[in-house]
Each structure stands twice: as C-alpha cells, then as structure tokens.
Amino acid sequence: DAGVTQSPTHLIKTRGQQVTLRCSPISGHKSVSWYQQVLGQGPQFIFQYYEKEERGRGNFPDRFSARQFPNYSSELNVNALLLGDSALYLCASSLGGTGNTIYFGEGSWLTVV
Amino acid sequence: DQQVKQNSPSLSVQEGRISILNCDYTNSMFDYFLWYKKYPAEGPTFLISISSIKDKNEDGRFTVFLNKSAKHLSLHIVPSQPGDSAVYFCAASDPFNNNDMRFGAGTRLTVKP
Questions:
Q1: Residues 11-70, chain B, touching A (beta carbon < 8 A)
Q2: Would you tell me which residues 28-67 of chain A have a C-beta closer than 8 angstroms to some C-beta of chain B?
C-alpha cells in the first residue's frame, strides 16, 4: 500500500519567489496536515485540512496557504519566500478525528537562496 | 511556547541494553501521545502511541509509559539494536485541538555495537 507521497523531494528557490508543494494522502485518509521542520527542532504545525475544509492553522504568516482537493490530495503554497522558509516541509495524513495517528511522507526539502 | 519538551538532545547506549527516552509536557489537555522515529533524509515514522486513559502501552521491543500527574512520558527500547539509531520525537494532541499536534525537539539515539 502506498504511503503518503510528496513532491518535489528537493527544490531551490530565490527570495521573493513562490513555491507549491504537493501531497497525496494514504488511501482512505481524509485529513491532511502540513508541518515545517527546521534543523534541530521538531515539526511545527502549519495547516490541517479535513474533507476539503481548513480545520486548523498554526502560527505562520499569511504567505502560507493550502488547499485540499476532492481526491483528498493537498497543496501547500508559500509566497514571497524568505531565507528563513528554508526547511523540510512534511505532509501527514490521518483518518481525521480525535486520537488518530498521523502518518508522514518523506518531505520536501526547500532551500531559499 | 514549548508545550512538549525533550530535554536530552542525545543519548548513547550499548547494543542489547535498554534505551530510555523522556518527554515532558505542560498542557494538561493533551490526551493522546505518540513517538516517532526519524532517519536522516526521511520523514518521521510512527512508532507507538498511548491514550491518556492508559499508563502503559507495549509493542514488541517498544514500551511507552505515561505519568499524567507528572506530565511525563517515556519510551523504553529493550533490547536496543544498532538499527534503532535515529532521532526520536514525542508528540501530543488534545481533543479540543487535535488538529495541532505538538512535537518535542527530538532526542538523537545512538546504539553502539
């Protein structure tokens, strides 16, 4: 069974540019969450979507946005990239609801130069 | 605010011995706790979880203990194997905000042959 898949795996962008990261959840999972992980820290929550609706948002600026499609895949968009946006972006999926385990993809490594 | 803390950035143990990784939390609303393992260049892999209605959960060589009064959980790995060498993250969520799973900063475990 396919796990959570993310694309691209690595990318380099210039300050001020925009980036779109993509995620396909585990089959049957309706919830997708996005996390940012910088070196030396644990994953930081950015967004959660469930049944195509935003259910939660972390402490990130409005430059970060996301959406979920009818097939439950998701995109994370970051506008006006800053050097500090360089990080590993993780997508996770779950069945949704309370007490459910989230399963991560391999992540997308973003470097902003 | 760091609601989940892993105060030991690293731990080194001998193969065959017990590894004990610790995690403290501050939010008394947390009711679901998880441990993830992360190898370099990979996404976090779910290891084991525990609900707040339990104080112990076991899965093979891995056991998680939860002490709610102390707001402390620990992961025991017995016996430790070199392949267990990775970064371990603890995470917690609360039923009123389960969209926002909080992670500790991680503990790097090295198991020496």
A1: 31-32, 34, 36, 41-46, 49, 51
A2: 33, 35, 40-45, 48, 50, 55-56, 58
Choose the closest CB to B49 out of A4, A43, A101. A101
B95 Cβ contact partners less than 8 Å away, ≥ 6 residues apart: A98, A99, B29, B31, B32
Say whether the peptide bond before residue A70 is cis (omega within 30 degrees of 0): no
The per-residue pLDDT for B93 is: 87
Q: In the sheet that B19-25 helps form, which strands lie side by side, from edge to edge?
A: B4-5, B19-25, B72-77, B62-67, B56-59
Q: What is the mean pLDDT of residues B6-25?
A: 97
Q: Which pair of structure tokens corresponds to residue A25?
A: 């959840």
Task: Read off the tokens for A103.
Answer: 């399963």
Of A4, A44, A98, the CB nearest to B95: A98
Written as six digits, the tokens of B111 are 């198991």
